[in-house]
Amino acid sequence: MGEFKVHRVRFFNYVPSGIRCVAYNNQSNRLAVSRTDGTVEIYNLSANYFQEKFFPGHESRATEALCWAEGQRLFSAGLNGEIIEYDLQALNIKYAVDAFGGPIWSMTASPRGSQLLIGCEDGSVKLFQITPDKIQFERNFDRQKRSAIHKMNVDRRYMGVSKRKCIVWGVAFLSDGTIISVDSAGKVQFWDSVTGTLAKNHLIANADVLSIAVADQEDSFVVGTAEGTVFHFQLVSVTSNSNEKQWVRTKPFQHHTHDVRTVAHSPTALISGGTDTHLVIRPLMERVEVKNYDAALRKITFPHRRLVSCSKKRQLLLFQFAHHLELWRLGSTVATGKNGDTLPLSKNADHLLHLKTKGPENIICSCISPCGSWIAYSTASRFFLYRLNYEHDNISLKRVSKMPAFLRSALQVLFSEDSTKLFVASNEGSLHIIQLLEGSFKHLHAFQCLSGTVEAMCLLAVSPDGNWLAASGTSAGVHVYNVKLLKLHCTVPAYNFPVTALAIAPNTNNLVIAHSDQQVFEYSIPDKQYTEWSRTVQKQGFHQLWLQRDTPITHISFHPKRPMHILLHDAYMFCIIDKSLPLPNDKTLLYNPLPPKNESDVVQRRTAHAFKISKIYKPLLFMDLLDEKTLVAVERPLDDIIAQLPPPIKKKKFGT
Amino acid sequence: MVQLRPRASRTPASAEAMVDEGQPASEEEAEHGLLLGQPSSGAAAEPLEEDEEGDDEFDDEAPEELTFARAQEEAREEERRVRETVRRDKTLLKEKRKRREELFIEQKKRKLLPDTILEKLTTASQTNLKESPRKLKEVNFQKKNEECEKGSHSKKVKEKVQKVQSVSQNKSYLALRLKDQDLRDSRQQAAKAFIHNSLYGPGTNRTTVNKFLSLANKRLPVKKAAAQFLNNSWGTQNKQNAKRFKRRWMIRKMKTSKM
Question: Cα–Cα distances in Å, from A300 out to A20, A36, A276, A279?
C-alpha cells in the first residue's frame, strides 16, 4: 500500500443543528426531518436510510410542524405563520401561504390526505383544502367549538394545576375517543373525550415529556422526554384471554443525551430526534418480519454529503457551514518517523479566510478549484463566484459580479482539474458548463435534463483530463457527457439505490460509483461498459461486513501513480481497494489489521485481500490523497459536537 | 373692574420718566380703560384724570388738562394702530403658510416617481387585476384579496393589500407593508421566546454540557477529570498580549545581537 503522512485535521468546527420535527410517510417509506435552522431533509428508509434530498434552511423559518399529504406532498408550518409546500422534484420551495393566524403551532393532515388542519397562535384552528397545485383556505374553527376530526394533533398552551405553568406539549386523539396528552410535568394522561374526565395518569419522567406519536393501528404510541428517554406504550390485554385492554408502558430507550423534541411511529420502528442532532431509528423486534441486520438500531449523526473540498496544489481545505465558508491552509512538518508516530508541526494550520454569506439563506453547496484560485458557492436564490489572489502569505478576494440570470441556485458545483471550467448543476434540472477567464467567465453550454424523475441530490464528477463529466441524481441512471464535444456520451444503467459518491479515475477514465446499499461499481467510459473487475466483484458479491456498514461512502479518490488503487471512505473507516489482489469471500477477515513485519510470508499472503480497511481515523468527514505520499483526514469527534449543544437536563447520580 | 394705577419704579433713572409720565401715563390709562372693557369712549364724558402717583413730591401745578376729544382721538389712533398691526401680522402669517404649503407640494412632487412609471403602474395594475390571479413564486406574499373574495374574514379587511406586478422586463418585485412585517416578526419572536423560556428558562432543571459529560468520569473506580477540564477561552487577551510582546522582544534581541 505504501507509506503515507496523514494530516489529521480537527479544526473543522462542524455542529449540525438540532432536529425539530419528523414526519413519516408510509407509502414511500420516507422520513422527512426538519431541523432548527430550517433545513428539511428527506431520508429514504428503504435505501439503507440514506439522505437523498434536502431543502436548505432559512433564518426566518422556525418550523414547528411537518406533515405529508396525499400524493407525496410535503408541507411544513412554522412560527412565521406560513404554510410551505416543498417540491420534491424541483428540490425547491413550491410556495408559501400565510395563514393569517399568527405563529402556527401545529399541523396535521386528514387521514385521506386531502385536507390540512393547523392550530394558530390566536386560538383558531383553520382548515385548508389541498388542491392539485396549491392549498386553499376552507374554514375557520373558533376556539370553543369542537370538531369531529379524527387524529387531531393540536398543541395548545393552557394553565395547569401545578405551581409552575404546566404546558401541554402534545395531544393525540384516538378514534375510540381517548385523548392522550403529554405535558411539561412529566405526565402522560389519558382523557375520555365524551365525559371530559381524566381516565389514567402516568408519571414517567422528572422533566418535560415533549412529543408523542401514535401508530396507524392505534395499538401503540411513543413519547419522548426532555431527558433523552423514549418510552413505548402499548395496548395490552389485561390477562391473557380477556378482551379488556389497557395501555401499558413497555419499553424505555435511552439513545439521546438531550431533549427528544419529536418522535414518529412507523409500522415497524420508532423514530426519534432531538436537540442532540442524532436521528435514531429503532426497529421494534416484534414487528420486524425478517430478523437480520436490518433490525438493528440506526443512529444518523454525520452528514451524508461532502462538506469539505480540497485544493491539492496549495494544500487548502474549504469547509462549508450553514452561513459561512472557512478556508484553511494545512500545516507542514519536516520531521520523519516510523509507522504510527505523531510528527510535530513546524508550521501550524492557518485560518486564511472566513467568508460570510449575505442574506438569511443557508449555503447549499460549495467548491474550491484545484489550483486554489476560485471559490464558488450557492444558496437557494443566488450563486457566488470569487477569485482569490495569493501574494506571499497574504490572500485577497474579489467577487465576480454579474452572474448570469439563469444561474440562480445550484445543487452541486464542481471545478475541472485545470481550473478553467466550472460545472454547475442547477435545480431546474440543467447542467451548465462555464469557462473561467481571468476576471470574468463565459457560458459555454447547458445540458438540459433528460427523462427520469429526480431521485436524489445531484452529484458531479469530472475526469482529470477534462474530457468527461458524470452527473447522477435522476432515476435514469448516471449520465456521462463529453465535455469537448458538448454532448451526451452514455448513461450507466439505472440502479435502484441512490448514488452516494462518484469519481472518475485518471488515465483509465473508469467511473467509480458508490451506492447507498454499499455497492461499488466501476464503469469504463471509453468502452461504455462495466469493467472486468466490476463484473467479478458483482459475481462474487461483497463481504457481509462491508454490506452491513451504516454510513454511506461520501468520497472516492485515486492515486496518481497507482491505477489499481481506489481510495474511499465513509464516516467510520477508510479503505483502499487494490484491484490486483484477490477479493475476500465471506469467510476471510475483512478488517484485518496490518500484519507485523516479522510474520511469515504465508500468513501475509493468506490474509491479504483487496480491501485494506483502516479504522484509525474516525469519525471521518473527509479523506483525500493530497499527493503521492500524503493523506488528509478531517475528523470530527462526537464529544466536540456535544460540547457545543444547548444545556441538557440535570441528572442526579448517586455519588456525584 | 379695578383699574390699577401705574406704579413708578424705584430707580433714579425713572425720575425723568416720572416727569414725562404725564402724557404717556394717561394714554396708557386710556388704553387700559378701553382694553379692559370699560365703557366705550362715547359713553364716558368725564376726562380721565389720574394723579401722577409715584412722585411723592407734592407738585403744586395742576395736572394737565386733557380734553375728552383729544383723548378720544388718541384712543382711536391707538385702536387703529393695533388693528393695523394685527392685520399685518395675519397677512404675514397667511403668506408664510402659503409659501410653506407650496414648498411641501414641491418636495412631494420631487419624491414621487416620474410620471411615466406611474402611468405604467396604474395601467399594469388595472389590467392584471382583471386577469385571474397568477401563481407567484415569491416566498413572502399576502393574498388578502382572494381571501376576502371567499368571504370568510371580515375583521381583517382594514389591512391594505399592495400587489405590484412586474413592470420592468427583468425584475419582478412585490410591495409589502412594513408594519405587517414588524408585527409578524414580533409575534414570531414572542413565540420563540416562549418556547425557550419553557424549555431553558427559570424553573427548568438544566445543567451544563461539561457537568453532564463528566458524570461518568466521576463514578469511575479511578476518578478522571471533567470532560472539558481546560477552559481554553480563559485569559485570551492576556495570551495575545504575551505573544505580541514575545515577538517584539525577539526582534529587539535580534537587532541588538546583530549590532
Answer: 15, 16, 11, 5
**A378 DSSP assignment:** E
Query: Which amino acid does the sequence have at A533?
Result: W
Alpha helices in A295-400 (DSSP H): none
Provide the residue count of chain B.
259
> What does the pLDDT look like over A415-450, one tens digit per residue?
999 889 999 998 877 888 988 888 778 888 888 876
* Helices B68-111/B22-35 angle, 10° precision: 60
Q: Which residue has the higher pLDDT, B96 or A290?
A: B96
How confident is the model over A299-308, as a mean pLDDT? 93
Residue B2: per-residue pLDDT: 63
CB contact under 8 A, B152 and A60: no
Instruction: State the pLDDT at residue A110.
Output: 84
Residue A623 above 90 pLDDT?
Answer: yes
Nearest CB among B200, B218, B227 relative to A646 is that of B200
- pLDDT at position B202 is 81
CB B152: neighbour CB atoms within 10 A?
Answer: 13
**Rounded distance between C-alpha atoms, residue A36 and residue A14, angstroms:** 15
From CA A266, how far away is CA A390, in angstroms rounded? 54
Query: Using CA atoms, how far apart are residues A200 and A198, in angstroms rounded to an integer?
Result: 6
- Opening angle at CA B120, ends B115 and B122, nearest 5: 95
Q: Does residue A545 contact residue A592 with C-beta atoms inside 8 Å?
A: no
Q: Do A647 and B209 touch (CB under 8 A)?
A: yes
Instruction: Tell me whether residues A651 and B142 touch, CB distance under 8 A.
Output: no
Say if CB A299 and CB A280 are below 8 A apart. Answer: yes
C-alpha atoms less than 13 angstroms from C-alpha of A562 in its C-beta half-sphere? 18
Question: What distance in Å separates residue A648's CA from the closest CA in chain B?
Answer: 6
- Categorise residue B102: left if φ over 0, alpha if ψ from -120 to 50, beta otherwise: alpha
- Do A79 and A87 form a contact (C-beta atoms < 8 A)? no
- Compare CB distances from B191 to A82, A121, A140 and report the shortest one's residue: A121
For residues A566 and A577, the answer to whether their CB atoms sit within 8 Å is yes
Give B-chain residues touching A405 at CB under 8 angstroms. Answer: 170
Cross-chain residue pair B150–A80, CB shorter than 8 Å: no
B83 with B36: CB under 8 angstroms? no
Count the helix, strand and coil residues of chain B and give each as a percent rounded to the nearest 5: 55, 0, 45
Distance CA A293, CA A93 (A): 36
Written as one string, the DSSP assignment of A303-348 is -SS--EEEETTTTEEEEE-SSEEEEEE--B------TTPPPPPSB-
Helices (H), A507-648: 532-540, 544-547, 601-607, 638-642
Amino acid identity of residue B134, one-letter, is R
Query: DSSP alpha helices (H): ranges in A541-609?
Result: 544-547, 601-607
Long-range pairs for A530-533 at CB < 8 Å and ≥24 separation?
A533/A579
Integer Cα distance of A331 and A571 in angstroms: 23
Residues of A in contact with B182 (CB under 8 A): none
Average pLDDT over residues A459-476: 90
Q: What mean pLDDT value characterizes chain A?
A: 86
DSSP code, position A387? E
CA distance B165 to A40: 31
Find the length of chain A. Answer: 656
Quote the pLDDT of residue A480: 93
Distance CA A431, CA A422 (A): 10
B177: its cell numbers? 407593508
More confident residue, A383 or A602: A383
Beta bridge partners of A606: none
Least confident of A30-44, A82-96, A120-134, B162-176: B162-176
Q: Which DSSP letter does residue A345 get?
A: P
SS3 B101: helix
Judging contacts by C-beta atoms under 8 Å, the chain A residues touching residue B213 are 639, 642-643
Report helix, strand or coil for A442: strand
**Which chain A residues have a beta carbon less than 8 Å from that of B205?**
206-207, 649-650
